[in-house]
# Entry
Amino acid sequence: MRAGGRFSYTPASASYAEGRSLPMDQGSLSDRPPACTRIALVVVVALCAFAMALKPVRSPDVWHHVKSGWFVVQNRGPAATDVFSCTVQGKPWIQYEWLAQLAIYGVYQAGGATGLVLFQAAAAALLALLLMAAMCSALITLLFRLRDRLLAWQKGMVQW
# Structure
């Protein structure tokens, strides 16, 4: 919609009468919050998620995953038999989490227990940002569809 370096304006009812969806009203761009406000919101959401996920590792499963990752590194592949169980040791076992365990072991090697906590917090912040992006995208799509439905009665009535 650029013409000569400027935005061209097509009346909403004219484009809608031609069967196209309504363009975004150029006047509404000034109604949006400034970029620094939007960036600040994203940073606050990420920092809140990061801060809420900063808690000590309490699950014993984490240490099993660290040790299983160590086993993958030492044997250059996942275990084919159960090596950590006291009840069924040596029985066939499919270590289907070996790649994640390898990553967890790498984080533990790089930063210890603190590294695991920071990794958990960073993953929570990333997840919060992804959810925020998906929700905002879905909300904007929903609003545009609602606008199209509400203005459908104009179709064909206004001629330019």
